[in-house]
Amino acid sequence: MMLCRALRPKNLPLLFHKPKVNPCELWAAPFGSLFSTHIVGDKPILVRDFIHSALYDPKHGYFSQRSKSVGVLPRAIKFNQLEGRKGYMKYLDKIYKESEVSWFTPVEIFKPWYAHGIAEAIMRTANFSVPLKIYEIGGGSGTCAKGIMDYIMLNAPPRVYNNMTYISVEVSPSLAEIQRETVGEVHSHLSKFRVECRDATDRSGWGDVEQQPCWVIMLEVLDNLPHDLIYSENQVSPWMEVWVEKLQDRETLSELYKPLQDSLIKRCVEIIDLDKKHDFQSSAILKAKSVWSKVFPKPQRCWLPTGCLKLLEVLHEVLPKMSLIASDFSYLPDVRILGERAPLVSTKVLLLTFKGDQLFMKLKFMILVCFQGDADIFFPTEFWLLERIDHYCSGWLKLQKDMLSKEGKKRRTITLDTSSFMDEFGLPSKTRTKDGYNPLLDDFKNTKFYLSVPTHNTV
C-alpha cells in the first residue's frame, strides 16, 4: 500500500497510471462545465487560496461535501485471523465494498493499536506535573482521540486521565459531529473532550497564548494543507508567483505570473533557500549558465508548503511549549502534475468511472477542473524542510544567511519511518497476520513520523 489513506486495492493500478503531460496544458479546460466558478472571481487569486477554497470551503469544499469519505470501521480488524498479505488485501476490498467510502486512514485500519502507539509516545515524554492537554488538528472520525484517551485511561495514573483535556480543532462541521459520537462511546471521555469547529491556521480562533506544556497531533494533515506555486522561465530567471485567473470566456482558468511579493511565499522561499547554490558560483559559471538557459531553456516549477508554514507560525505563537507529533507522506508515486513537491490528486468518482486515456486526461487537468468538492489532494512532505520550518517558527532559525539564535535550539526533533515509530512505541504483534506479514510495518513505506519537543531554551 503506497497511500496513507488506503484506497481500494483494485484501484491502485488505475491511480498510478502514468500519462504524458504537456506543461502548457496544466491549466487547460477540456471539461469547462466542471469549473468551480465561485473559487475564482473577477480578480486573480494565489494558488494556495484556490486550493484552500477547493478543499475547505464550507459549502463547496471537499471536506465539507465529503464527510462520508472518511471511513469508520464498526469493529477492529483481527489481523491474527488473516492468512497473510493476500488475505489482508481481500479483507480490505470487502470492507470498502460494504462501506462505500473513499478511504480508511491508518489510525482506522489499525485501531486501536495505531492510536495506542501515539499515546505511548506521549506518556513517555509528557510532563505530568501539569494536567495533560492534547490538541489534535483535523481529527477525522475521532478514532485517534478515542484510542489515545482509552490508552491513557487504562495505562496512566488515574489523576492523569481524570485531569486531562483533549481538544480537536476541526474545520468540517460534519466530521466534528462524527468525532463527538466516536469519542462518546466511552461516557467518561465526554467531560474531557471537545471539538472546536474552526480553521487551525486562523490565529484569531486560538485566543490567548497557552503558557503550559501541551501536545499537538497532526495525522495526514500536512498533505492537505494549501501550497503555493512558483515558476521560473529557465535555469537563471527569477522565481515568480503563480496566480489563477479567469480568461475572458469566463470558463477557462489560466496561470498568471507575478514577481515575488507575497510575504508568506517570500519567507518560504528563504527558508528553503532555493537560490543558495548561486551564492558560491563564479561570474564565468553564471554567465555560461545564462547562455545555456537561452539555448536550452528549462522552465521550473516548485510547490511551496506555505500552508504548513502558516500553521506552524500560529502554533508556535499560541502554544510556545507544545510538543508535536505529525505523520504524513514522505513521497508519492507517479505524480503527474509538474513541479518539485507536486501533489497527487484523486477522486473516487474518477477511479471508478474513467479508464485508459480518459482517466489520465481527467487527472491531467484535475488540479483546476475537478475541485468542486469531488477531489482530494495529497502533497508529499519533505521532512528535512518540515524540521527547518519548525526551527524557524520556534525562533531559533533566522532568515537572511541562516543566522541562528544565540539562545541555541529551542526544539529537539527526530524523524522516524512509520515502522520504526511503531516498533518503538506500539505493539506490532497486534497487527501481524498468521504467516508473519505485518501491513503496519511492511506496507506504509512512504510515510514517516515527525516528533518535536521544546528544550530548556524555550522562553
UniProtKB/TrEMBL annotation:
Keyword Transit peptide found: no
Cited SUPFAM superfamilies: S-adenosyl-L-methionine-dependent methyltransferases
InterPro entries named among the record's database cross-references: NDUFAF7 (IPR003788), NDUFAF7_sf (IPR038375), SAM-dependent_MTases_sf (IPR029063)
Compartment(s) of residence: Mitochondrion
Keywords assigned: Methyltransferase, Mitochondrion, Transferase
GO cellular component, one term: mitochondrion
Catalytic reaction(s) noted: L-arginyl-[protein] + 2 S-adenosyl-L-methionine = N(omega),N(omega)'-dimethyl-L-arginyl-[protein] + 2 S-adenosyl-L-homocysteine + 2 H(+)
Source organism, top-level taxon: Eukaryota
GO MF annotation list: protein-arginine omega-N symmetric methyltransferase activity
This enzyme's EC code(s): 2.1.1.320
Enzyme class: transferase
GO biological process: methylation
General function of this protein: Arginine methyltransferase involved in the assembly or stability of mitochondrial NADH:ubiquinone oxidoreductase complex (complex I).
Family: Belongs to the NDUFAF7 family.
Name this protein carries in UniProt: Protein arginine methyltransferase NDUFAF7
Gene: LOC110749626
